[in-house]
Amino acid sequence: MLRFLVRRTLGAIVILFLLSIVTFLLFFGMPRDPGLLMCGKACNPGALANIHHVLGLDKPISTQYGIFLKNLVMGSNGFAQGPCPAPCFGYSYHTNDLVWSTLTDRLPTTISLTLGGAFFFLLIGLGTGLIAAWKRGTLIDKTATAGAMVLGSMQIYFLGPLALALLVYQTHLFDKPAYNNFTSNPVSWFTGLIIPWVVLSTIFAAQYTRMARSAMIEQLQEEHVRTARAKGMSRKYVFFRYAWRGSLIPIVTIFGIDLGSLLGGAIITEYTFGLPGLGQLAVQSVFFSDLPLLLGVMLFSATMILLFNIVVDACYAFIDPRVRLA
Question: In 34-180, where does DSSP find H-type helix?
Fold first, then answer.
């Protein structure tokens, strides 16, 4: 098990390294001069040359990437704004703040949104899916399946404004969504995120309902489950002792990808509700053509996805004893 985790971690580091090369080339290796994005409308050759010198754009692209990778691993004191400790993504073009500091400032909002939403959509989605599989072919099953299909076709940018209009502006049942520090005021933290959690979980819960139902029905057809039933074990015992664990494999796989993606920035949800997280930060970095900040968000998101893929692989052996990781 330990050897597997070490091998997967080393593989993830290699993938992240290759991804950093591709991402860097997308921003700084394209034919268009990235210095023009910073120069503005009143750009002149002297100002453009100064930007090239400050950002190192007057050097070969391989040298630029080497400097970027060195700064990322070891930090740098070569920035005009001041020292940049590792991991150093540089300074934001727009705010002149450290990119890494900006990412860590926005991260608590995204973590709160992700974990709260994940709790609700797992609880609702898996619960509904299991009930639908248990009551397969009944009205309950058909209602849950139809409801999941309808809700799964909805979009956050539609449900979000609708929830705000009904729950905040008309009925005043909830305050406008906002992020409050959990340690300072847990109640305000919860009430400020309840609507984004509900909207986010509505979309994902529908997907997990269908996934849990189909996975459970498939597991009920497996030979070891039918053998357990043939030995006289009760339907309830077989359902939860054998079929339930086997059905978690595809669910955990998708959950790891979804969780990593959300932690990298729930762009639409954060932008819809005005939450200052990584998703909103990504939109702002695109709007202001802030290349160091956008590069930092993309690499951070990729790291989260790779990390949770490793966690998911490690969970397989604990969920299903038939899985053997060499």
Answer: 35-39, 45-55, 61-74, 99-134, 139-152, 156-164
Query: Distance between CA 301 and CA 264 in Å, rounded?
Result: 4
- Cβ partners under 8 Å of residue 159, min gap 6: 199, 202, 203
Q: How far apart are the first and last CA of the chain?
A: 7
| Interior angle at CA 176, CA 172 and CA 182, nearest 5 | 120
Q: Given CA atoms 93, 96, 100, 101 in this order, what sign does their dihedral have?
A: negative
| Predicted local distance difference test score (pLDDT) of residue 39 | 60
Q: Where are the domains of the chain?
A: 2-98, 100-319
What CATH number does the domain located at 100-319 have?
1.10.3720.10
d(Cα 49, Cα 223) in Å, to the nearest integer? 71
pLDDT, one tens digit per residue, over 99-132 is: 899 999 998 998 898 888 889 888 888 888 888 8
Residue 158 tokens read as 């539609």
Dmax over CA atoms of the chain, in Å, equals 85
- Within 10 Å of residue 175's Cβ, how many Cβ atoms? 13
Q: Decide: 298 and 291 in contact? Cβ < 8 Å.
A: no
pLDDT at res. 31: 65
How many Å apart are CA 3 and CA 61, to the nearest integer?
37
Cα–Cα dist 251/4, whole Å? 21
Specify the higher pLDDT residue, 9 or 187: 187
Give whole-number Cα distances, 10 to 59, 88, 189, 321, in Å.
Answer: 31, 21, 37, 25
Round to whole Å and give the CA distance between 316 and 311: 9
Task: Note whether 314 and 5 are within 8 A (CB).
Answer: yes
